[in-house]
Amino acid sequence: MSEVGLQIDPLSYLRGCTEPWIVYKLVEHLKKPTEHVLSILVQNEKITEIIDECKTWPGEPIKRHNDTTHLFHKIEFLADLGLTVEIEGIREVADRVLAHQSEEGMFLSSIIVPKVWGGYDKPSMDWMLCDAPVHLYSLLSFGVSNEQTDEAARNLVWLVENNGWRCINSLEKFRGPGRKEDFCPYANLIALKALSLHPKYRKSESCELGIDAQLMH
CB-hemisphere CA count at 13 Å for 149? Predict the structure, then answer.
């Protein structure tokens, strides 16, 4: 079977882009000095608007996790860009997330689930494995490493099953789609993404189970 290659040179295309977030990540990828392009990025009006919006965390309750307009996705976007707590506004965003953590260590979101699906018909601060790992990833990527992030990572590791991470949450009666013993591809992926940034757990047996589950899916 022959390899299928790209028909264009992606670097040539990306070098022609002017969006500051693309320019910054490209310069970073090429291992060139980033100070100047980072300064341009964090002063961009769209980026400052997103940072200011994320300062209102937890914001509107999550009704569906694939809603990319929700704040937890926007916070993750800021983390994906490579912003850290040294950037104005990011520390405040991180502190807002850190302020909402369950007793077992999972970071919480405002979630609304109808009673017919096992929820309360009103917003509550809870966690699901399709949001809590995103918070951990964002915090670690921002450069936050403390007892709270360690506790969250440790609890995430404990929640893995022999087929990866399943649909688990803090709501007493809610259960996601599929069979109870099925793994959740999205939760599994973001759990791996989060733990990849934790030096103690990135090569753990839990991550190996998650990787195997993702590759076999």
Answer: 23
